[in-house]
Amino acid sequence: MSDTETINLLGLSPAALEAFVRTGGGKPFRARQLSRWIHQRGVDQFSDMTDLARDFRVWLQGCGLIAAPPVQFEKHSADGTRKWLFDMGRGNAIETVYIPEDDRGTLCVSSQAGCTVACPFCSTGYQGFSRNLTTAEIVGQLWHANRVLADAPAGVRLGGAAESPRPVSNVVFMGMGEPLLNYDQVLGAVQLMVDDHAYGLSRRRVTVSTSGVVPMIDRLAADCPVALAVSLHAPNDGLRDRLVPLNRKYPLAELLAACNRYLEHAPRDFITFEYIMLDGINDTDEHARQLVDVARQVRCKFNLIPFNPFPQSGLRRSPQQRIRLFARQLTDAGLVVTVRKTRGDDIDAACGQLAGEVRDRTRIAERLPDRARVIIRKKETA
Q: N or C: less crowded end of the chain, CB within 10 Å?
């Protein structure tokens, strides 16, 4: 290893970290020590890792580093939500959101700078797509959040872990990007999150959300099954083709079959279907009846998400009364239904509002407004 070659240890898997340590003459237990210093204690200076041999620390300083993406700014919501904008270089930035609750602290992480799926109700899609994030960049979001929140007053960080030095108790891959289109890097991050010598999170407390990348759902089931959420948003192929364009490649029947296969390995006995509530588009009584039919095919629960408007979409949130009636139709059919509480909308940190800054290399932004107008026009002529 040359004097100028440095490796960001934040992104190394347990096996890769052990191999790295061996090049410096360290034994496997040194890799586990090093992992705990990095991920559990949030230390970024090798000189502070006092139970490592001095010569070994000197070697680490010459060939390794511990670095999360730099933070451009942090915003605080009135409801306790925090949002960080991380600088990814070359005109790109991604957003990460921490949501404190009485019994948990949930971190919503990004996996791509932008997104290629281009759902018309999601502001990330209007930014286009630049690149996938590395494992170190994904894990760095969690590493940074734990460090910052550990120093915050207990009433701010909450997370069911007010006395814990690591206040993030749950991680959801629901930020910018489609996680399963960056599979290898996301898998590396997930494996670190559940590793006992890194973050030690239960597989039930790590959730990967996907628009429905069927082949990668099967791979995740085999490699590291965690909780799975599917961005459903429509109960039939015709409407889902427009709201979730990926459905044209992997239609509902294929997606539901993949969900059933995943349940054979999943840490939970249900799939969470996320369903954004769009006024007059996917919120009618007939849509609710069709969702009941979907639920008969997969063990699931529904998470209804009030749409969070943003200027480019031209879409509207379903009225509260309509959301309540829609939810009641599902619960009357025996389904488990929650309505997501909107958090952080005063700092544009609510579901669907994450946009960051993306150097658009796909020119998606030129196409999305037309798609939104088509959806609205179909609604008005129905």
A: C
Given the residues 95, 137, 178, 274, the one annotated as active site: 95
pLDDT average, residue stretch 197-218: 97
Q: Of 189, 203, 159, 171, which Cα lies nearest the Cα of 96?
A: 171
Q: Is 351 a catalytic residue?
A: yes
pLDDT digits (tens, 9 = 90+) for 344-358: 555 454 444 444 555
Q: Which sign does the torsion angle of CA 373, 255, 230, 88 carry?
A: negative
Q: How does pLDDT run across 285-309, given as a tens digit for each residue?
A: 999 999 999 999 999 999 999 998 8
Q: Which of 101, 259, 351, 357 is catalytic?
A: 351
- Burial of 3 from C-beta contacts in 10 A (0-12 / 13-18 / 19+): exposed
Q: Which of these, 116, 138, 7, 115, lies nearest to 69 by C-alpha position?
A: 138
